[in-house]
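Worked example 2:
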Amino acid sequence: MITLAAYLAVIAAVLALLWTVQRRLIYFPTGGVPTASSTGLSDVEPVTFETTDGLGLSGWFVGASGPSPRVTVLVFNGNAGNRAHRGPLAAALHLHGLQVLLVDYRGYGGNPGAPTEEGLAADSRAARAYLAGRPDVDPARIVYFGESLGTAVAIDLAVTHPPAALVLRSPFTSMADVGQHHYPFLPVSLLLRDRFAAIDRIRRIRVPLLVVAGGHDRIVPIENTRRLYDAAVAPKTLLVLPDADHNDYQLLAGDEMIQAVVRFLQPLM
């Protein structure tokens, strides 16, 4: 018979392993970045900038023709892939006269370093500082667009560096809540290093807010997104695409979502 001590030892070993490898269960970076043109983008300027802890990050700046400076959308990616996967989003926004900066976090897209919550926060500050320093960008008309994990990054940055407006696609209350949903048998809240507790910060946001969610999202349940939306006190709008799952094209660059974003940003344009 397995003794109680042996049983507890096995549990302790499993929890220790999860503590050690947990970031591999959160972040799924890919390194190889194809050409911008292969993602449907044109007029792309490859850019680099440095974080306060000395890492050089790469990105693509998609400028808009016509009078400058214009409204610029700073995109914060989800937890997988790299900036090339957001090419269709940037292309769709660009068609409506918006400038877009696609960037990769540390450890993504060939960038040095390894992703952590603190590291992604530093990356977001560096990306915004880079944008604000460009002569063709109006710092008063920078918009944050967060996708999935990037919604927590965008919310965190918006508290200290408020944008002109904030768009959150598939946002969540906290990593602990999402993790507990997917792993109900684990003490997720006790194990987590990177908590991304967006619900604790959303109440401090005062800029116009657009939340976009999928009604059939199997990664961030719509109920979780609604909790975050309900907690927000900023002027807010909710768009639910009832048939969309987390990684569906509808939530990447679908026409209904893009049209909603453009309408939302119209007062800035």
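Residues 4-21 form the longest helix (18 residues). The mean pLDDT is 91.
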